[in-house]
């Protein structure tokens, strides 16, 4: 069985390849597509420099593949044409299953980030290629612990519960969906141990021995704050909008689906923060 992983040289892609190998997939049967191939050179997989813009190269890379882990593109605003190329290539190549990393509640979410994911889900549905949706909630790694120790946490999430999980948990779940049977047509809402931003600050404080506070702002003020520390305005607006949605429950999902794919409990928040403090 040949499995192709797009975005393989990113953080999630590398972890997904490692999880596939840990689950018994021979490295020689895995093809990693990306731009910085040196980042997966040590894994022993077939590595190919393929861009999401190049539908012909994608088709060639997918030819002979049984399954594809389709990791969404990182360029917000460009995903729809890029993702159209991936879906078209997978269809042309006769891929047997696509596992797509979407976002929580993509079909009903009003988050800016959800729009391109929802459009991609529709592309998959219209393609005729069997697929499984891996709707990942937030990543714990989105919250940078080291700066928080010095500056505290800022945001606009209010008391909203955020079901964040580690990249490693999401990667392992994706690998399970690829090596297991009966996942075609399934929609998995994936999230970890839920917390509020104040609870996150309290956990960082407990483990670090330093007082870390969470300052809740309006979305507009949060955009202003982010831009003030160098975040580009469009991305700042996306982050603030995500917090707005989180305040209303948009990033909360039960952990049931993630634990089902993992076959174990999700990584506890305390363990994830401990790891981040070591990094």
UniProtKB/TrEMBL annotation:
Record-linked PANTHER family: NMRA-LIKE DOMAIN-CONTAINING PROTEIN, QUINONE OXIDOREDUCTASE 2
Q: Which Pfam families match?
A: NmrA (PF05368)
Which classification does the entry list for the species? Bacteria, Bacillati, Actinomycetota, Actinomycetes, Micromonosporales
Q: Which domain of life is it from?
A: Bacteria
What the entry lists under InterPro entries is as follows: NAD(P)-bd_dom_sf, NmrA-like, NmrA-type_oxidoreductase
What is the protein name for this chain? Answer: NAD(P)-dependent oxidoreductase
Which residue windows are transmembrane per the record? none
Residues in domain NmrA-like?
A: 2-242
Protein's organism: Paractinoplanes ferrugineus
